[in-house]
Amino acid sequence: MMNRRNFLVSTVFAGLMATLLPAPGQASDTLAYTPGLIEEQLAAGKTVFVDYAASWCGTCARQERVINALRSSNPAYNDAIVFVRVDWDDYRGHAVTTSRKIPRRSTLLVLKGDKELGRIVAGTGEAQIKALLDTGLQAGT
Predict the structure, then answer these.
(1) What is the C-alpha to C-alpha distance for residues 46 and 10, in angstroms, rounded to an integer?
(2) Structure confidence at residue 28 (pLDDT)
(3) 57 Cα distance to chain centroid
(4) Could you tell me if 137 and 83 are in contact, meaning their C-beta atoms sit under 8 angstroms apart?
(5) Which tens digits make up the pLDDT trace of 94-111?
(6) Are 104 and 54 in contact (CB under 8 A)?
(7) Which of 42, 86, 99, 104 could form a disulfide with 33 if both were Cys (CB 3.0 to 4.6 A apart)?
(8) Across residues 83-98, what is the average pLDDT?
(9) Where are the alpha helices (DSSP H) in the chain?
(10) CA distances (Å), 134 to each of 8, 83, 97, 111, 128, in order?
(11) Distance (Å, rounded) from C-alpha 41 to C-alpha 45?
(12) pLDDT at res. 20
């Protein structure tokens, strides 16, 4: 039987772990967005893949599975691209979303410098996502 103290400790621990660990299925080297992160990476000359997603979104989950499979099969993506996940529920009204005119969750972008090199909105096809990753790979090398 769980008493109130044990419940609180387990709840706090679970919340702490959720902020430290990637979301289920999310690659461990995908960065959780914090304000300024994308601009910092772009200023450092990095190619940035941005995934606007929500934990409850089925399309986002499918995209994530495809992205993770592609990254696993071609480690060059991880070497050339910084992957950032923007939590739609936290940042849908934030400048990181509005300044890029992101229409909805399940939007994927590749950025380099001050340019958007490619975008997919709600697409889940492996060929389409691979083409976007390949665009990032070419820009990052």
Answers:
(1) 39
(2) 60
(3) 13
(4) no
(5) 999 999 999 999 999 999
(6) no
(7) 86
(8) 97
(9) 4-20, 37-43, 58-73, 76-80, 88-91, 95-98, 126-140
(10) 46, 14, 23, 13, 10
(11) 7
(12) 40
